Each structure stands twice: as structure tokens, then as C-alpha cells.
Amino acid sequence: CRKSCYFRIFIKRGKEVLDAGSGVGRAAFKIHGFCESITAMDNNDWALKAMEEKRAELGLGKGLKIVKGELLEIPFPENSFGIVYSLWTLHHLKQDWKEKLKELNLKFHS
Predict the structure, then answer these.
(1) What would the DSSP string read from start to end of 67-88?
(2) In terms of Cα–Cα distance, which of 53, 59, 1, 51 is closest to 31?
(3) Angle ∠(79,41,75) on CA atoms, nearest 5
(4) Which of 23, 26, 37, 98 is least enclosed, having the fewest CB within 10 Å?
(5) How far apart are CA 4 and CA 19, in angstroms?
(6) Which ranges in the chain belong to alpha helices (H)?
(7) Which of 97, 86, 44, 84 is nearest to 67 (CA)?
């Protein structure tokens, strides 16, 4: 509950949320009910399959989208989301990510 309570401070109903680099979707599943919809994006096929299985097991069809994508090449148009977050992912990146994250911040929060 402690972690999901933290998210409740930032997540507002009616907002579209992107979990960029969601892994197996731990955070996405925890905050699913607190936002309009959430898109869980990861580039790992195994993690995507695990999320799809968990979504089916919990019966969460609507409001939780699962998408394959790269953290530094987010495949959505500008202003697609009201909130974009990424947890426990930067250490997986092989390239210099600081400049790219600045670009993404400008793209999604202009």
C-alpha cells in the first residue's frame, strides 16, 4: 500500500498515464484504478507476455494498454499523456540517456 499511496498523490482521475519501461507492470497494475487509462510500455517480449497474462488473470481489459516500445524512442505523438513516469529503468539503458530524456521531457511537457 505504501508505494501505491505514493502514486495516488500524483495520479489524477481523467489523466492518461504512460509507464515507460514498465517491465512486468508492477507499478501499472497498482495504479490502474486511479487514472483514466494507463499504457504500460516495455521493449522486452518476456515482460510484455507476463503483463498480458496478469491482465487477463485480473480481468483488466479496458483501461490498461500494453505496448512494445523503447524508452528513448517513445512511439506516441506529443501530448498523448497527462503523466509520464519511468521507474527502475535507467540502469538498463546502454547509451547516454541524459540528453534524450531532456528531449522527451520537452516533447511531452511543453
Answers:
(1) EE-BTTB--S-TT--SEEE--S
(2) 1
(3) 45
(4) 98
(5) 14
(6) 2-10, 26-31, 45-58, 98-108
(7) 44
Q: Which residue do the cell numbers 541524459 mark?
A: 98
Question: Which three cell numbers mark 38?
Answer: 494507463
User: Which residues share a beta bridge with 106?
Assistant: none
Q: What is the pLDDT of residue 1?
A: 45
Distance from chain centroid for Cα 108: 13
d(CA 87, CA 74): 15
| Backbone phi, psi, residue 36, to 5° | -60, -55
Tens digit of pLDDT for each residue in 20-63?
A: 888 899 888 888 877 778 899 999 999 999 999 999 998 887 78
Pairing of strands 64-68, 83-85: unpaired
Unique residue bearing C-alpha cell 529503468: 89
Cβ–Cβ under 8 Å, residues 84 and 53: no
